[in-house]
UniProtKB/TrEMBL annotation:
<feature type="region of interest" description="Disordered">
    <location>
        <begin position="1"/>
        <end position="24"/>
    </location>
</feature>
<dbReference type="InterPro" id="IPR000182">
    <property type="entry name" value="GNAT_dom"/>
</dbReference>
<feature type="domain" description="N-acetyltransferase">
    <location>
        <begin position="9"/>
        <end position="175"/>
    </location>
</feature>
<feature type="compositionally biased region" description="Basic and acidic residues">
    <location>
        <begin position="10"/>
        <end position="24"/>
    </location>
</feature>
<dbReference type="GO" id="GO:0016747">
    <property type="term" value="F:acyltransferase activity, transferring groups other than amino-acyl groups"/>
</dbReference>
<protein>
    <recommendedName>
        <fullName>N-acetyltransferase domain-containing protein</fullName>
    </recommendedName>
</protein>
<dbReference type="Pfam" id="PF00583">
    <property type="entry name" value="Acetyltransf_1"/>
</dbReference>
<dbReference type="InterPro" id="IPR016181">
    <property type="entry name" value="Acyl_CoA_acyltransferase"/>
</dbReference>
<dbReference type="InterPro" id="IPR052810">
    <property type="entry name" value="Plant_NAT"/>
</dbReference>
Length: 394
């Protein structure tokens, strides 16, 4: 294809030796907020592939003009892995190879030329070569251009609507329910628990052990609601005789991949936020709902693998989330978790509405040869109560 100046646009694989400046420029151009208001900027710390390189298979493509002084005008990132579909087959959970699309960007000067469509189609071809049966992407429901591209032109269906819940990290500690006891699990115990109790949860990764062993994983924690307290006696004892109410979750340090920064805030807004932080530091007992310094580059933590069982599982989940927020003090400005629309644990997760997204949107597409012999199609299936969000793709 050619752009408005008649130059051909070529799609090719990203070259870290020559393309870093060009891709950084495209990312910066696409971070501008609407109408001069506040916008969220992501700094990939000099590594454009940072968000995908911890996945088992990944690829980054760029769109480049081929004329004199050719420049990069678009990019897209993708990963392929094996995940649970939530559909049980006789004797084993059903897994499928899926491709995940993220970081699609087209420079404002080259939009409405079909470049985004070319990038998506080229990445889908690579998905097919990697054996992917499905492809999916996540976007904000208000991103009309993205939705038109994927649903109207690329054949994706609106699939799931999880919520992103975010809580700031204060100088004071977040209170956790006293009825819950929180213990830390070793990676191998955590892996066995996850595989035993969560292998049927949608998007549960087959390589969960690699996720838990990653240097960015800050640990897995179990919360149990028990009147007499709880003592961890090993994963075998837990699996054979689980407590009445419990929840488990793991923490991931996104600051090792990217830093975020809110730009475009007024001096008044910055000053008011700074005043809340100052008061919180000198009078922690007041428990001031202080606003972290989001106006300079900051790190965030992500809670993944959240799940549980029992009447008070939501109480246990609240204790877990509060404990991780407290653990993040001095290392992150905010902690986030993404939960399914039907997840009963979401009711007790502490979060700030102004920082959270009540309804994210995931779209899914069945690629050639996907699905099962009996005609079952994951893209047309009903949502479950839980969803596993891989922290490597946040």
């Amino acid at each position: 294809m050619r752009d408005e100046e008649g130059e051909a646009v070529v799609i090719r694989e990203y070259d870290p030796k020559t393309d870093r400046d060009g891709t950084d420029a495209v990312d910066r151009d696409c971070e501008v907020g609407p109408g001069g208001g506040m916008s969220l900027h992501a700094d990939l710390l000099g590594d454009p592939v940072a968000r995908i390189r911890r996945s088992p298979r990944y690829l980054m493509l760029v769109a480049e003009t081929s004329g004199p002084g050719g420049r990069i005008v678009g990019l897209i990132r993708g990963t392929v892995k094996s995940v649970a579909t939530g559909e049980s087959l006789p004797g084993a959970p059903a897994f499928a190879n899926v491709g995940y699309i993220l970081g699609l960007r087209v420079a404002p000067s080259h939009r409405r030329m079909g470049i985004a469509l070319l990038l998506v189609r080229q990445l889908e071809r690579w998905f097919g070569l990697m054996g992917a049966e499905y492809a999916y992407m996540a976007t904000d429901r208000s991103n009309e251009a993205s939705l038109r591209l994927f649903t109207a032109r690329c054949g994706y269906s609106k699939f799931r609507t999880p919520s992103l819940l975010v809580h700031p990290v204060h100088s004071h500690r977040l209170r956790a329910p006293r009825r819950a006891t929180v213990v830390r699990l070793g990676p191998r115990d955590a892996e066995r628990l996850y595989r035993s109790r969560f292998a049927h949860v949608e998007f549960f990764p087959a390589d969960i052990g690699d996720v838990l062993d990653n240097a960015l994983s800050r640990g897995t924690f179990l919360a149990v609601v028990d009147k007499g307290g709880y003592e961890w006696r090993g994963v075998d004892r837990f699996l054979s005789s689980p407590p009445a109410s419990w929840a488990v979750a793991s923490a991931w340090d996104c600051g090792g991949v990217f830093r975020l920064e809110v730009r475009g805030a007024s001096r008044l807004r910055r000053g008011a936020a700074a005043a809340t932080r100052a008061l919180d530091r000198v009078a922690k007992w007041l428990r001031v709902p202080s606003v972290p310094d989001f106006f300079r580059p900051f790190a965030g933590w992500f809670v993944y693998g959240l799940g549980g069982d029992g009447r008070d599982a939501a109480v246990a989940a609240e204790a877990l989330f509060a404990s991780i927020v407290n653990m993040a003090r001095g290392a992150a400005a905010a902690v986030a978790v993404e939960v399914a629309a039907l997840d009963p644990l979401r009711s007790r997760i502490p979060h700030w509405r102004r920082l959270s997204c009540a309804e994210d949107l995931w779209c899914l597409k069945r690629l050639g040869g996907g699905g099962h012999a009996d005609g079952w199609d994951w893209a047309r299936s009903a949502p479950g109560h839980s969803i596993f969000v891989d922290p490597r793709e946040v």
